[in-house]
Each structure stands twice: as C-alpha cells, then as structure tokens.
C-alpha cells in the first residue's frame, strides 16, 4: 500500500525530526557548558530545562490550537505587521547566530578529533554544502530522512553506552546535588534555551498534517531528547568522574574512544563518527531550512527555498570569523542567554496580546 | 544542469574521502610501547618501541632477517616533540593510535614532572585515555630493551596478554591514564610496578614480593608485581603484591574476580593451605561522616574454594576443622587488611580503596564534600574491616589420600 505524498509530515517524521534537532546536543560542546555549570550533577540540568521550557510550551500550544496557525503567522496576526516583522527578525537573528556558532563548533570537533590536517575552511564548506543539498530537497525529505535515520542513531547510541558500561561507575554521580539545588535551578533557567528549539520548531506547524500531530510529535520527541541528553551526561560523569570530566573538550568523542567490546574489539570511534556525522548533517539541514523559512516569512516572501544558498554562504562566512573554539564558546554562551530570554518571553507576550485583543473584541461586540 | 548534477557526486567522491588526512597503512609505524625517562633541563627521554608488522604475520618470508620491533630513544621537551624528532630517524610515520602501554621510570615518577608529562600528553588526539601506566624500577629505556619475551615475538601481543593475566591474578592494579586523572585531589592512585632487574628475596608467604624480588629461574626477564602509589600526581611509595591484592579486595568494584592465595594452616603451623578466593558480590562500605573520628565499616563477602592442603589434615569431612580453617583465613585476611589500612593512614595519609566514592555519597553538594576533607579525616578514621569467607568447595577429592604404613 503506497500512500501518495501530500508534502506534509506525520507524527513519526516530526518526532524523529525533533529528536535529531535536540538530542544531538548531548554529543557536541553543550555538555561542556552543562558540566561547567552542573558539575557532577550535569545530568540533572536537561531535566530542569525540560521543566522550564514546558512553561512557554503550555502557553504557546493552546494559542496555536485556537488560531490554528504556526508560530510566525501567529506573531503577525497578534502583534500586527510592524511589530511582527521586528519579532520575526529577532527570531531570525537568534536562529542564524545559533546555526553559525553551532555549525562552527561541530567542525571544530571534527577538525580536532579526526582530521587535524585537512583545512578547516574546506571541511566547513563541505559540511554546509551537504546540509544545503538536503535542505534543498524540502521539508518533507528532511522529515523522511530523519525518521529513517533515527533508529540507526538510537541503536548506535545504545551500543555506545553498552560498550562503556564496564568502565562506568554509578557512585561517581554522587554527591547528587553537585553545586547545590539553587545553582542548579538558576543555571537550569539560564541555559534552558539549549532546548529552546522546541519553541522555534513551532514555526513548522503549517508543514504538518494537523495540530494534533504536531503537538504529539513535539512532546514525544522533546521528552525523548531530554532523556537522552541526561543519560549521556550521566555517562560522561560515570566514566570520567568529576572533576576529571571538566577538562574534556568533547566528552562524547572521548567516550567513543574509550568504548570497547571485550579486549579484542577496540577503537570503535570511527563507527560512531559515521553515525554522528549523519546526525549532524540532518541537524544542520533542519537549521538551515528553519533559518530560510523564518527569514522569508519576516519579509513576507512566499518562495524561500532560493534563499537557502545565500544563507548557507552567509553562515559559512560568519562561521569562519572566530579563530578557535574558546572564543566561540564565549559567543555561544551569549547567544544561549539571549535566546533563553526570547524563547521564554515570546509565548508570554503572545498570550498577553491574545488576551488583550480578545477582550477588546468582546467589548466591541 | 543535468550534466552538473551527474558530475557533482564524482567530484564529491574525490574530495570527501579525506585526502587531507589520509594515512597509508604501509606508511605508518605503530608505536606499541612508549617509555619516558627523566632527562636534564626538564626534558624527557622518550623511548619508542615500533612494531614491525611483517614479523609474526604471513608476510614474514619477505622480512626474514628483520627484528620484531625497533627501539629508539629521543630526548625532547615533551612526548609529541620527541615523536617529531624521532621522525628524523624512523622511516615510517610514527603513530600512537595503537599505543596501549606506557612505561615510566620510577626516577621520573617520583618528581613533579611526572604529572606534567602525563597531563599534557593526552591533549594529543592520538593518545588514548585507556593507555596502561607501568612504573619501572630501572630506566624505562633499559626496561624496554631488556624485555625480550621468548614466546611472544610481537611486543604488543605480549603486553595485551600480560594485562589480561595481571587483571586475573590481582598482584598489580588495573591502571590507566583515565583512572589516574580521576584521582588527583588527594586520593591514592595505584600504578603497575614492574622491573627487569633482580633482587630475589625468600618469603614464606608467596605473594609478599615487590617486582624483582620473586625468586625466579629462567623465563622472561620482566617481573610485574605490586604497585606504585601516587598522591597528587607524584609517586610516594610502593605496595607489595599482597598489599595490592588486599587493596583491590577492599575496593567496591572488583576487577579481579578470583585470586589464588595460601593461608597458614591452623592445625599444622609449618604448612599453608592454598585456596581460591572468589568475589561474588561487591564490597560493602559504610562511612559514618557524622562521627568524630569518622567510622568506616567494610564488609567483604568472599567465596572460598579449597584447592590444596599440603599438611594432609582432613579439613573436608570434619566440620569442626572446616570452621577452624575458615576462621584462620578470615583472621589472616583481616590482620593483613588492618595492617595495610594502618600503613596508608600513617605513611601515605590517604586511601587507595576508592572509599572516597562512599564518603561523597554522604554529602548533598560537592562543596560540602570538599569542606569535609575526606583524606584528612581518613588518617584518623576508625576502620573496621570484616571479611566474610564461606567455603564453597574442596576440589575434586574428599580428602587427601593418606599413606597407610603397616
């Protein structure tokens, strides 16, 4: 039975897409920030993020249901044209800067851990080219590709955990609160935009079959992603122990180096690198697509796919500016803080507008 | 456009195959053992043992007169620059990806420089954190040169096999760089202690030796026994093979599942009984941090398989004797463990038993734990160790065959 494609995504595809967008954050330089803030309790932070991000989601989802519109349309409808353009442009800046900073940090990982001699510029160029090609195929293909790949990614992840199991020690997770409950909560709020994409992914509602599909897929994908990031962080601490884990630049890639199945099957890192690169390419094609889509909507353009190539070029150019990853991490922290604020207050703002407008309308009537 | 889309995959195939970092297998020289010695001016003398992949393989015929490995020593400020300098001698591109063993001379290990060497080396992407650390009594270069195992032609195989044996018997700890990094804040780290020199010593108890003291005739030149004790990244002493075994017993997670050891025969004082000790469940450690001095209670459950009774006393069928034997093993283990705890408290002022993990469990935040200063508290702690052996089996005869003289 072959269903004719209607160009829209279902629950399965969108869940996978959400997972690829968010869960991969456990494998890049995000855990560095988490470990720095949460010490040996870094694995608690993703759970706190989830709780914090849930508040704006709880406000946003009913709004989207009520108006049956994606995030961007909702902004224009509630905030009017001028303010709408301003907000959308702000969102565009957030997504553009995080795409740039994150993609550069991925290339830094590949460069440091695997290909130190290949010019970074060339690696970055190739990486973004591949992402561009996938993004160019359209949103449906990205969703399909994610739903096909997600199983391979999950299974390879489970194999990784299995292969470091013997070297991990659960007692390393103690003391449970790490830096203390208050600092954990504070950093959980400040860094919560690490998972903020889930709010931004709401722009894709028009690409889904129904609002119900969207809500279900977002929540399932988000839940699993947070769980996965928490598990990975716990394993970093369990294998490397705190404070030793704090000195690691890229804990996921160090973990794949430690992995072994028995005494004979060692040096498994190349296998995990393959899956990881596939996941990151998917991840950034989603980002690219989202950047182009938000930009087009800001300017009220209908065709946005021609924008992909110039935006890719722009990201490449900006991404090459910082010299190394340390300067990058600082700018990344800035992006995260400002994005946290936007992601958190935008739904509140929209909700306020909606209430205000609703009252005015009922007064008129 | 169609032509372009046809061409593009081929272009990508050319550039995506990572030519920038290509490594020809033929071109690589795999360093399988790395030795580090102290040199003048804060430099290190790095010894590389480079494997010859042709020896011991099917292409042996084409390399009949080649040795299994080449050994060369270079003095340089650090390991990576030594590797680069060594390239002026070695024909193949030196590569650390298959490096599994690092040998460091005791002379270097006893200085502060040791930590600088190890800690900076792991920044190199080829250095894995699973590399085993062996401390040699003599210079590392002498150790590597002297190590010519008779039955293992290829050096990496020798170390791979030996590491498995060591883990089984538990005379030496399972020491990797990763574990070393875990224990830098005052906890004791145990590294493998080995030597090719000999200073034989006769002991009644078969495992109270340090490397080099085991009475040996023939066999391979390397003796691996006991452990080097590190605190704050510096070697401060040694533990004998037996002490290492006891230390491993007192750790929460067992690396060595079973060991064979002999214990004084309770009924005939001149003899000893040889048993196999099995760890079936993890050691149970309870630390009471609210008391002053700190109370540590350790319970080690053990299964005992009696293998040999040279005194020919019937411990098998006589239940009273059995109880006596059990008590003798228990007392012997406990007195040794207590002596070891005392030694670590007084001599090293810290513990190698990973008990800090249990102390950490008692606190809610990292700050509280650090303020508690576990290492300091340990030196005055009241430690209670209880071994709980239970005799599981007696080998495959009811009792030793007796001589019936008329």
From TrEMBL, chain A:
It is a multi-pass membrane protein. Its main location: membrane. This is Spore germination protein (Amino acid permease). The lineage of its organism: Bacteria, Bacillati, Bacillota, Bacilli, Bacillales. It holds the Pfam family Spore_permease. It is found in: Membrane. Keywords: Germination, Membrane, Transmembrane, Transmembrane helix, Transport. The keyword Transmembrane applies. It comes from Ammoniphilus resinae. Belongs to the amino acid-polyamine-organocation (APC) superfamily. Spore germination protein (SGP) (TC 2.A.3.9) family. The chain crosses the membrane at residues 43-63, 83-101, 113-135, 147-165, 189-207, 219-239, 270-295, 307-328, 334-353.
Automatic annotation (TrEMBL), chain B:
Residues 225-395 form the Spore germination GerAC-like C-terminal domain. The keyword Membrane applies. Gene3D superfamilies: Nutrient germinant receptor protein C, domain 3. It is a lipid-anchor. Pfam families: Spore_GerAC, Spore_GerAC_N. Keywords: Germination, Lipoprotein, Membrane, Palmitate, Signal. The keyword Lipoprotein applies. It is found in: Membrane. Residues 1-23 form the signal peptide. Residues 21-187 form the Spore germination protein N-terminal domain. Belongs to the GerABKC lipoprotein family. PANTHER family: SPORE GERMINATION PROTEIN B3. This is Ger(X)C family germination protein. The lineage of its organism: Bacteria, Bacillati, Bacillota, Bacilli, Bacillales.
């Amino acid at each position: 039975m072959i269903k004719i494609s209607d160009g829209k995504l279902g629950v399965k595809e969108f869940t996978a897409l959400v997972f690829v967008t968010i869960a991969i954050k456990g494998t890049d330089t995000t855990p560095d920030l988490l470990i720095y803030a949460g010490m040996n309790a870094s694995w608690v932070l993703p759970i706190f993020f989830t709780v914090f991000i849930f508040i704006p989601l709880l406000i946003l989802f009913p709004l989207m249901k009520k108006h049956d519109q994606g995030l961007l349309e909702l902004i224009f409808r509630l905030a009017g044209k001028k303010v709408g353009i301003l907000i959308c442009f702000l969102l565009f800046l957030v997504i553009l800067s995080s795409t740039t900073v994150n993609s550069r940090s991925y290339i830094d990982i590949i460069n440091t851990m695997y290909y130190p001699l290949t010019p970074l510029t060339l690696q970055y160029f190739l990486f973004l080219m591949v992402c561009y090609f996938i993004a160019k195929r359209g949103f449906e293909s990205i969703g399909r590709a994610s739903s096909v790949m997600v199983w391979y990614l999950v299974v390879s992840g489970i194999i990784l955990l299995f292969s470091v199991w013997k070297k991990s020690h659960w007692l390393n997770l103690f003391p449970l609160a790490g830096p203390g409950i208050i600092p954990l909560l504070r950093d959980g709020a400040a860094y919560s935009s690490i998972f903020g994409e889930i709010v931004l992914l709401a722009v894709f509602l028009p690409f889904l079959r129904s609002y119900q599909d969207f809500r279900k897929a977002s929540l399932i994908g988000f839940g699993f992603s947070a769980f996965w990031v928490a598990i990975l962080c716990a394993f970093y601490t369990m294998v490397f122990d705190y404070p030793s884990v704090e000195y690691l630049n890229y804990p996921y890639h160090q973990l794949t180096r430690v992995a072994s199945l028995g005494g004979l099957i060692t040096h498994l890192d190349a296998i995990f690198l393959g899956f990881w690169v596939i996941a990151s390419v998917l991840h950034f094609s989603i980002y690219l697509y989202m950047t182009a889509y938000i930009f087009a909507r800001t300017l009220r353009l209908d065709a946005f796919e021609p924008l992909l190539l110039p935006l890719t070029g722009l990201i490449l150019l900006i991404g090459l500016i910082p010299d190394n990853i340390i300067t990058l991490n600082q700018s990344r922290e800035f992006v995260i803080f400002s994005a946290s604020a936007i992601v958190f207050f935008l739904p509140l703002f929209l909700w306020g507008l909606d209430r205000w407008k609703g009252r005015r309308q009922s007064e008129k009537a | 456009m169609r032509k372009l889309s046809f061409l593009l995959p081929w272009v990508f195939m050319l550039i995506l195959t990572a030519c920038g970092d290509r490594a020809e297998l033929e071109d690589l020289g795999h360093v399988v053992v790395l030795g580090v010695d102290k040199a003048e001016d804060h430099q290190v003398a790095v010894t590389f043992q480079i494997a010859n992949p042709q020896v011991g393989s099917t292409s042996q015929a084409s390399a009949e007169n080649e040795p299994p490995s080449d050994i060369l020593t270079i003095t340089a400020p650090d390991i990576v620059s030594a590797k680069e300098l060594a390239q002026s001698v070695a024909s193949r591109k030196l590569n650390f990806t298959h490096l599994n063993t690092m040998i460091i001379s005791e002379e270097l290990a006893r200085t502060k420089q040791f930590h600088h060497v190890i800690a900076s080396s792991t920044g190199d992407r080829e250095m894995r954190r699973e590399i085993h650390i062996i401390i040699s009594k003599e210079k590392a270069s002498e150790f590597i040169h002297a190590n010519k195992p008779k039955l293992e032609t290829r050096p990496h195989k020798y170390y791979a096999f030996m590491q498995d044996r060591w883990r089984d018997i538990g005379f030496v700890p399972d020491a990797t760089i990763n574990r070393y990094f875990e224990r830098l804040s005052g906890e004791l780290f145990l590294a493998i202690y080995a030597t090719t020199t000999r200073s034989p010593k006769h002991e009644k108890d078969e495992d109270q030796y340090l490397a080099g003291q085991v009475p040996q005739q023939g066999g391979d030149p390397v003796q691996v026994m006991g452990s080097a004790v590190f605190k704050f990244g510096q070697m401060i002493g040694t533990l004998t093979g037996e002490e290492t075994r006891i230390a491993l017993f007192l750790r929460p997670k067992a690396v060595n599942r079973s060991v064979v050891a002999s214990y004084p025969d309770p009924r005939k004082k001149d003899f000893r009984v040889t048993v196999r000790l099995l760890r079936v469940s993890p050691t149970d450690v309870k630390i009471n941090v609210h008391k002053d001095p700190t109370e540590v209670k350790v319970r080690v459950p053990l299964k005992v398989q009696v293998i040999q009774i040279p005194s020919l006393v019937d411990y098998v069928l006589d239940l009273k004797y059995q109880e006596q034997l059990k008590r003798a093993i228990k007392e012997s283990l406990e007195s040794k463990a207590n002596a070891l705890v005392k030694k670590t408290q007084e001599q090293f002022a810290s513990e190698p038993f990973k008990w800090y993990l249990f102390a950490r469990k008692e606190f809610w935040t990292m700050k509280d734990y650090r303020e508690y200063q576990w290492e300091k508290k340990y030196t005055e702690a009241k430690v209670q160790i209880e071994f709980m052996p239970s005799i599981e089996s007696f080998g495959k005869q009811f009792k030793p065959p007796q001589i019936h003289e008329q």
